Amino acid sequence: MQCINAAKLLPDHLLKEIQQYIQGEALYIPTCKSKRRKWGESSGAADYYKVRNAEIRSRFQEGAELYQLCEQYGLSIDSIRKIVYSKNPQS
Prior knowledge:
Blueprint: H1 6-9, H2 12-19, H3 45-61, H4 66-73, H5 77-84
Helix pairs in contact: 4-5
């Protein structure tokens, strides 16, 4: 994250208003919630895990044992249980 001089970016009236609260220090301004991306949207990780977890649930419903799923997907027995017994199969 790079620093930007507020005097070069903000109008004078806004700069003076901010200076009433903070002067000469770094200030982090977060993005708007409406513009934030959810976890894994940019990298594709969310979609990857959604597909993987659906496969795990499907294989479990077809009769695969928990320990088989652990070995195939490289996950712990607790992780597999959380996936197959979750009430919200979105993730």
